[in-house]
Amino acid sequence: MQKMNKWPDSFSEKAPSPLVWFLSFAGIIAVRLFLDNFVAQQGKFTLASPTDAHNLLFFLLVIISLWLWLALCVQENPLKLSNLVLWASLIIIFPPIFDMLKTGGGIFWSPYLFSSFHDLGPQCVSFLGNLPTGMVYFGTRIMAAVCVLAFLLIIFLKTKNVWRSLAGALGAYGILFFFVSFPSWLSFVYHFFQGSKKITAVTSIDIVQFVGAPKPIFGVEFAESLKHALSFNLNLIYFPLLLGLLAILFFWINKDKFRALAGNARLPQLLGHTGLFFAGLWLGYLAYPGNLNLNIFSAFAALNLLAAIWLAWLASVAVNDIYDFSIDAISNQDRPLPKKIITIGEYWQIGLIFFILSLVGGFIVNPKFAALLLVYQVIAWIYSSPPFHLKRLPVAATLLAAADLIIVLFIGFALISGDNNIQGLSWRVILLLLLTLTLALPLKDFKDIEADKKHNIWTLPVLLGEEKGRLFMAAWAFVSFVLTVFFLNEFRLFWWAVLCGAGAFLVIVNKKTKPRQFFWWVLGIAAAYGLILVKIIFL
């Protein structure tokens, strides 16, 4: 009995690293896909389809939700439970095995519950009973029962509290039932806010039509079969939910590391990426106005791509910080590595996870977005790391950074343009952005002059010095605003361009403006000018 009491704690002795945990879990999902799509009768093996990510997203949501619930019930840091949760995740591979044993090789058709509000109660109380004809939760019900009993046992062994154990087991079942019936709940929430129907009037047919039918995602066409539309639509909802749960999990495990990474995200650059993505959407709409299909799933597709862009940026920040550690130790001592809040090994793993999640976020909308994000990462790698480390070379470094930002614009544009990709995007816009960004991005290097000079990083501020560098950048800021008039062939912008350009010039040359404030000032002026530009040209 004493060994039994210590059994749950034995799993907390060696917590796997985040990357090892993630890759191990992905391996479990791969085994589940192999059983469902290759071993079972009538299984069809597919690859490189956005719906292939569905099992990974669904089971990650379920497991992390159960993980957080277990940590709450036993009042322990989730990190101590990570090994236990990973071993428990093996349960995912067993439902199709039980199904095949019962049927002689096939698996039961056991999709989500598409149940009305009145039907969900009896189905929950009867442990996934009272289901429509043809729906059989055989292996799934067995594993759900095992999961609930495991919760009961683990919580009791850790707390010796019967009522807490019972509450924990019921909560675990509630989480499982919620995700099994997720399409129904999503439909209820949608109709509640839309106001077209009362929740109690939503039928199974309404739910299937809402979640299970293909929806236009701006210009991106759904090329899969009808039966995959459900997975595609739900993936768009699951990805941001998963990111939210991962953020909660990370915050709970280590608040200091979470805050350090959040504070190191470089908010001006994040806002710049966001602005270029929406600028791409706007330009795509102007080129292909017929592709503006607004619905909840197209909105989530845009949200997913924006989140994927943010993750790509955070991954590039991790690589940059690792290879610029000696520079940051001089000029950016408040960053996580110089402050020793995060080790280099941990930062590598976190950066890889950001990178993988970024590709997943693009992939579930369309594989071409994953390809664009991969190109973004390759450019960021060439910029920051050996053997190239082109950050050391003036102009070439900022040209690469500008190319990455233009890729963000392409992603927004391609979401609207669909199969036309960037064919409708004017070369004038691309060239204007490439020129202005290439020579404007050295603004970020003024704060690092001392450290860059010591490590032979030949940025424009290092080559020109701070005073001449300020004058050059101020002059270029003014020229950049005026250039928009000629590139866009819109002379109604002239005096606005002169006014905003003069404002940027004065901000940069003013010695009272600290180098760390350059981006905020210039970004604010550029945003104001962008709004004026949109109003004059398009509205």
Summary, kept brief:
The protein is mostly helical. The chain is built from 23 helices and no strands.
C-alpha end-to-end distance: 76 Å
Give the number of domains.
Answer: 3
Q: Tell how many strands the DSSP assignment holds.
A: 0
Rg, alpha carbons: 27 Å
Strand content is under 5%
Structural class: mainly alpha
Low-confidence region ranges: none
Quote the average pLDDT. 84
Helix content: over 70%
Order of SSEs: HHHHHHHHHHHHHHHHHHHHHHH
Helix count equals 23
Main sheet properties: none
What would the principal axes of the Cα set say about the shape?
globular
Describe the fold and architecture:
- This protein has about 550 residues and is mostly helical.
- It has three domains: about 1-180, no CATH class; about 255-425, UbiA prenyltransferase (Tetracycline Repressor, domain 2, Orthogonal Bundle); about 425-539, Four Helix Bundle (Hemerythrin (Met), subunit A) (Up-down Bundle).
- Helix content is about 70%, strand content about 0%.
- The chain contains 23 helices and no strands.
- It has helices at about 1-10, 20-40, 55-75, 80-90, 95-105, 115-125, 140-160, 160-180, 180-195, 205-210, 230-255, 255-265, 265-285, 295-325, 325-330, 345-365, 365-385, 395-415, 425-440, 450-455, 460-485, 495-510, 520-539.
- Helix 2 crosses helix 3 (about 55-75) and helix 21 runs antiparallel to helix 22.
- It starts with a helix and ends with a helix.
Q: What keyword list fits this structure?
A:
Tetracycline Repressor, domain 2; 70% helix; mainly alpha; Four Helix Bundle (Hemerythrin (Met), subunit A)
